[in-house]
Each structure stands twice: as structure tokens, then as C-alpha cells.
User: Which sequence fits this backbone?
């Protein structure tokens, strides 16, 4: 575990030094500022707009960080040959994958927290008062963080056997497909063709269901998040991430790095 922790901390330090990271956070905060502007234009729905745009910004820019920073760091280590030096030491390849994931997870946690602070500042501004964060909003941010962790695991998985561009495309494609899995399944059932229904069901069960983590519309309307959903999403994310990391370690273990 000491080796995993060392790799995780080193990954976190590398990510913090990446300028792209700060640019993404700045853009996210600017988008939240734009939400304030739209909220002032739309009288009576200021909070609704800020919640929708703010949480969407956290999701979008968090996904960009998860994909591009995660894949970029792994590729950079391979390109600069630092990975070969690391693996020459008594470090298992599985430990390398787990350490990278933990370091990227820590990076996502810090960045999500920073964007959450900007989000709540924007929300308090339009509400004209400072109050304790709504538990439903905290739950929505927690679900976003779980989704970003899952996206990070997928990005690491694809980076074990494909180029950075393809890894980013595959991860983003799965995120979009997983977000639309329920809709694709319902669409397949509406069409009276067996093969379309089978294709919709196949997509639904094959891709990670990111739709489960999206409660933005509900919390924006003031609906509470059920406690059972917290446990279900946590268990789902933990199981899926564990399987993806295990597959990543297996592929990376058998990959010829020469």
C-alpha cells in the first residue's frame, strides 16, 4: 500500500502542475458566473437556472479533467520513459494502475470541491442569503463525483491498450452512451422490430449507466434525493470501478511495453 500511496501522491502533484487543469476550473467558474447573468434576466427562476447550469458545469469540466488529465498523465509517463524506470523497481503493474487511479481520484475530489464552492457562491448570490447547503445539492455533487471516478477508471482502462485520442473518444462515447442508456432502451421497445429491441437492451446492459448519477433536474426543482439511492449509486460505482480497474490491471500486466 505504501507504493500505491507514493504513486497516488506523485500523480496528484503532476496533475496539480498541469496548466490545463487550472484552465478548466476557470472556465467552469466563468460558466457559473454566466448562470448568474441568465438568472437575473429570467426573473423568478434564478436559483433554478444557477443549479442547472452550475451542476452541469461541474459535470462537464470534471469529465474533461477526468479524461484528458488522466489519459495525458499515463501517456506522458510512457512517452518520457519514466514508467519504465518505475516498473523496474519492485512495483507491480497492478499497483501502478491503482496508484494512478487514486491520485486522479484525489485530483478530482479537490477540483470538484473547488467548483462546488464556486457553485454555492453563485447560488447564494442569486438567493441573496448565505445558508447551509441543501442536502439534495450535496447529494447531486456526490453523484457527479462518483460518475467522474467511473469515467476516470474507464479512461485508464482504454489507455492501457490504445492511443490517447482513441482512449478519450472511447471514454467520452461510453459516458454519452451510458447517459442515454435508458432512452435508447425505451426507444428500442417503441419500435416494433425485435433486433432493434435487442440492440437497445444490449446497450443498456453493456455500458455503465451514468444516468443513475444524474439527479440535476430533480434537485433543481427542490425534490429530495432518497437515501436508498445514495447506497445504490455508491455500491454500483464501487462494483463497476473495481471490475474496470481489475480488467485494466490484467491488460496492463500482459502488455509489452518495449
Assistant:
Amino acid at each position: 500500500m505504501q507504493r500505491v500511496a507514493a504513486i497516488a501522491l506523485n500523480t496528484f502533484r503532476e496533475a496539480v502542475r498541469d496548466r490545463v487543469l487550472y484552465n478548466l476550473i476557470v472556465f467552469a467558474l466563468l460558466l457559473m458566473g454566466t448562470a448568474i447573468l441568465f438568472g437575473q434576466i429570467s426573473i423568478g427562476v434564478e436559483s433554478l437556472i444557477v443549479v442547472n447550469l452550475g451542476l452541469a458545469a461541474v459535470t462537464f469540466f470534471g469529465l474533461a479533467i477526468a479524461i484528458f488529465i488522466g489519459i495525458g498523465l499515463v501517456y506522458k509517463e510512457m512517452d518520457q520513459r519514466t514508467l519504465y524506470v518505475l516498473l523496474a523497481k519492485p512495483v507491480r503493474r497492478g499497483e501502478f494502475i491503482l496508484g494512478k487511479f487514486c491520485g486522479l481520484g484525489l485530483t478530482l475530489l479537490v477540483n470538484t470541491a473547488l467548483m462546488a464552492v464556486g457553485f454555492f457562491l453563485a447560488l447564494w448570490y442569486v438567493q441573496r442569503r448565505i445558508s447551509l447547503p441543501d442536502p439534495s445539492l450535496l447529494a447531486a455533487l456526490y453523484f457527479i463525483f462518483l460518475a467522474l471516478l467511473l469515467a476516470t477508471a474507464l479512461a485508464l482502462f482504454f489507455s492501457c491498450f490504445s492511443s490517447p485520442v482513441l482512449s478519450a473518444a472511447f471514454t467520452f462515447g461510453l459516458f454519452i452512451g451510458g447517459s442515454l442508456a435508458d432512452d435508447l432502451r425505451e426507444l428500442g421497445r417503441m419500435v416494433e422490430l425485435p433486433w432493434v429491441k435487442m440492440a437497445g437492451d444490449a446497450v443498456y446492459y453493456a455500458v455503465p449507466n451514468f444516468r443513475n448519477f444524474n439527479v440535476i433536474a430533480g434537485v433543481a426543482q427542490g425534490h429530495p434525493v432518497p437515501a436508498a439511492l445514495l447506497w445504490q449509486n455508491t455500491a454500483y460505482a464501487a462494483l463497476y470501478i473495481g471490475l474496470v480497474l481489475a480488467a485494466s490491471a490484467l491488460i496492463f500486466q500482459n502488455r509489452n511495453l518495449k
